[in-house]
# Entry
Amino acid sequence: MEWHGFGLLAQPCAFGYDSRAVLSRAQEGRVRGILWSSPTGVIQTYCLEHLATAAKIPPGHMADLAVFVRTLHERGDCQRRFGGFCDADGHETKQTLVWGPPTRLVAQGQT
# Structure
């Protein structure tokens, strides 16, 4: 076979496709369900590790969970802060804490 100098100019994957694993729709749904299930007037905070455990997300997907939580926060679908008390396990952390329901739903009386 003769080589004519044609090489791959791009990675062999579809345009705009990132081959990394991401959360499944079921995992995303479990995360939303956990965050949005707090009773009205009660704030239940989760560090990412305990949120992952509650939502049955494997340790290999922690970065994907962090990206998903950031996206939820940017869309106003949850709240977050850095550092504080994780209610899920009763420990203090300097890491990201997340909770729900989203303030826009509370304001609309939908929770």
Remarks:
- The chain is about 35% helix and 15% strand.
- The longest helix spans residues 62-74.
- Strands lie at 46-47, 79-86, 91-99.
- Residues 44-108 form one domain.
